[in-house]
Amino acid sequence: MDTTSRVSLVIIATGVVIAGLYWFRDILAPFALAVFLWLVMDGFARALHDRVSFLPRWVALPLAIVVVLVGFAAMVFVVVDTAGAVAERAPDYQERISAIIAGAYDMVGADQPPPLAEILRSANPGRFLGQVASALQGVLADTLFVLIYVAFLFAAQASFSKRMRGVFTNEANREQARSVAYSIRESIQIYLWVQTVLALAAGVLCYFTLLALGLDNPLFWAFVIALMSYVPTIGPLVSTVLPTMFALVQFPELWRAGAVFAGISVWQFLLGNFAQPRMQGQSMNLSTLVVLLSLALWGAIWGLVGMFLSAPLTVMAMIILAQFPSTRWLAVLLSAEGKPEAGMRRAARPSM
């Protein structure tokens, strides 16, 4: 097969894979999220077992699972509590929004602005709230499936090695598969752990900053900032703009909204430009352009879940593509310096 035919075949196969990922996204996206959640829990359990010598594995694993689930439950509680607090202060926010609209009209020299109620009727908030309710219902349903998937992944974990020996009967092939699987697992776990630590740091630092500035619901915004830290590039931007917009509604003084923007931006800049490169190292090995393109691609395929998982999914694809001569050129294009093996880690565990 000549080079042109081989490249054409790779392009067609890529298109088929992308189409399959899109059409089966309702099944694959929750499963992918479950895999990464399983990696976080398993990595946390291994860290507890390795660093706390007296803690056995059978205790560390349930403890890690409980910690992650409690964190998720706390996030849901904060969101629900914030919704009630916002509803209580809705009249104050409406008055401030009306003042902002009037000020904007005066600035451009336009006529008397329409009442806020008329603007809301034109925007049809009922339909918007219905869409939000439908989306939340879908998230709750997906959460149940994710937890079920995670439970089955833990149940099947003990037999992974036996299954790999059955699939790869040749010792050399089994060693290569073991090395690739370990590289993928280590790279993704390092990425997820780094992002989790940075997300917690951003959330805590911004919480105290917003609390000092007097912004309403600082704990809710801290959760938003922490969650958006998992979305490459645009996540920190979104988590800076949203609290600033809320500050414009809450505070009559513009400088206080500017202080909110500056306070969050400083922590995002310091964590993103100093802490993250030192902690992450070469675990991702992706160029900035590839990170942006993967964010758009996975977001278009799997929505918000794809955006959260875009970087580790792309790294996984790069490591797999680098194993075959016909697709290695794609892995080279995805890597940061044209060396897809730079971030790979060789397995140092018993053979599968």
Walkthrough of the structure:
Helix content is 81%, strand content 0%. The chain has helices at 3-23, 25-51, 57-88, 90-108, 116-123, 125-157, 160-167, 171-213, 218-228, 234-250, 254-280, 288-308, 310-321, 328-334. α2 (25-51) packs across α6 (125-157). It is mainly α and 352 residues long. The radius of gyration is 24 Å and the shape is globular. Among the domains are: 190-281; 283-352, no CATH class.
Q: Specify the biggest β-sheet.
A: none
Number of helices: 14
Radius of gyration, taken over Cα atoms and rounded to an integer in Å: 24 Å
Q: What ranges have pLDDT less than 50 throughout 5 or more consecutive residues?
A: 346-352
The structural class is mainly alpha
Percent of residues in β-strands: under 5%
Helicity, in percent?
over 70%
Estimate the global geometry from the Cα principal axes: globular
Question: What is the residue-mean pLDDT, rounded to a whole number?
Answer: 79
Could you give the count of β-strands? 0
Order of helices and strands: HHHHHHHHHHHHHH
